[in-house]
């Protein structure tokens, strides 16, 4: 039995200090919980998938490759991120100028297929804005730096992005300010706790991503690669995707002419450095978008694996009535984390979540637990 009276401050243990763990720890502390955060790594989130990301908030673009539930989560996030960041003392770069999709003439068929998929999703979700077809003049008006390099494109209004590393840093600062007890280089799993017992937390939240595979064997790693470059000669102002038959490239401008260049995902949990081939392909494709990338300076080439479940959809499940696991954010981490956060907070505060049904999330007991 839990010896605490209802008036006693609830105690929560959060496992994993990536994006989901930091967001949840901050919100729990703001809700009056005494929070302890445990992570296998250090405060800079070196092992977190969120550190190696472009942090695009693109529900319309992602609707071509995911389910309606994820798209709804993305629309929710676009409205929630400004409010969540307003709670932070440190500024975080946030932009919502829409995104651009471009293609070379030989890839027009791939672009047509992509546009068809987006329009099909809009028939299911009325809140999605209509994509806008662009000719060369319209592209030049949106992004003058591209000149007449492309003759056709699509504009996806309302989409956004943020600076993932600024956000992780700002969340860390807030955790310290809220006096969350931070346990770095201290890996824990749910079996280390007995919620409700004397001296134990009231709640345990497992946000470890790939670190949770011992308790959730279906979680797999999906490799992502990014290149961060400083390109003073490039003045793109919004995320830009380049259609390609093998890998759709994205270029995401951050502050001070810093750009994140990457592709989508590779079905592998390999964490070795990027290959010469993939690096050359990414940089060559970026150069075809803007020749100014030829003089860019490579700041970092990074790889990481995103945690995914077999259906590539996120899930929340219980190992115990007060032990929740949040996992499977896949390539959509920044786009769906606010929705998952709000569902969990409703569950903690009310014992149920109205939002969960909106996002087709069923919080159910786990049956797949490692022996």
Shape: globular
Helix content: 25-40%
Let me know the average pLDDT. 93
Instruction: Predict the CATH topology of the largest domain.
Output: D-Amino Acid Oxidase, Chain A, domain 2
Number of domains: 2
Strand content: 15-25%
Distance between the termini: 25 Å
In CATH, the homologous superfamily of the largest domain goes by the name D-Amino Acid Oxidase, subunit A, domain 2
Radius of gyration: 21 Å
Provide the structure class: alpha/beta
Unreliable segments (pLDDT under 50, ≥5 consecutive)? 1-6
Major sheet size, sense and barrel closure:
8 strands, mixed
Strand order of the largest sheet: 6-7-5-12-13-14-11-15
- The total count of helices amounts to 9
Query: What is the architecture of the largest domain at the second tier of CATH?
Result: 2-Layer Sandwich
CATH top-level class of the largest domain: Alpha Beta
The SSE order reads: EHEEHHEEHEHEEHEEEEEEHEEEHHE
Overall strand count: 18
């Amino acid at each position: 039995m839990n010896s605490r009276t209802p008036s006693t401050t609830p105690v929560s243990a959060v496992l994993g200090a990536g994006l989901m763990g930091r967001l949840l720890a901050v919100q729990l502390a703001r809700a009056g919980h005494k929070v302890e955060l445990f992570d296998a790594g250090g405060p800079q989130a070196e092992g977190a998938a969120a550190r190696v990301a472009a942090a695009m908030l693109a529900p319309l673009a992602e609707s071509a490759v995911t389910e309606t539930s994820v798209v709804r989560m993305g629309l929710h996030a676009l409205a929630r991120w400004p409010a969540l960041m307003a709670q932070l003392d440190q500024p975080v770069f946030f932009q919502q100028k829409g995104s651009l999709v471009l293609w070379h003439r030989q890839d027009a068929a791939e672009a047509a297929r992509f546009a068809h998929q987006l329009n099909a999703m809009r028939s299911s979700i009325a809140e999605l804005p209509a994509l806008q077809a662009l000719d060369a003049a319209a592209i030049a008006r949106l992004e003058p730096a591209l000149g007449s390099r492309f003759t056709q494109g699509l504009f996806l209004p309302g989409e956004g992005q943020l600076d993932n590393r600024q956000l992780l840093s700002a969340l860390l600062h807030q955790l310290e300010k809220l006096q969350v007890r931070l346990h770095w280089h201290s890996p824990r799993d749910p079996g280390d706790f007995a919620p409700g017992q004397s001296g134990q937390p009231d709640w345990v939240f497992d946000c470890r991503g790939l670190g949770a595979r011992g308790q959730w064997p279906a979680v797999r790693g999906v490799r992502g690669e990014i290149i961060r470059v400083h390109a003073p000669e490039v003045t793109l102002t919004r995320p830009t995707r380049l259609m390609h038959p093998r890998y759709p490239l994205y270029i995401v401008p951050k502050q001070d002419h810093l750009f994140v260049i990457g592709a989508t995902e590779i079905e592998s949990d390999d964490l070795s450095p990027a290959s010469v081939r993939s690096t050359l392909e990414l940089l060559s494709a970026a150069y075809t978008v803007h020749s100014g990338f030829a003089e860019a300076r490579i700041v970092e080439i990074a790889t990481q694996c995103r945690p995914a479940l077999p259906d590539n959809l996120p899930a929340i499940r219980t190992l115990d009535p007060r032990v929740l696991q949040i996992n499977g954010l896949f390539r959509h981490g920044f786009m769906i984390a606010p929705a998952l956060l709000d569902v969990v907070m409703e569950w903690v505060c009310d014992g149920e979540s109205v939002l969960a049904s909106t996002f087709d999330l069923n919080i159910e007991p786990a049956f797949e637990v490692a022996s």
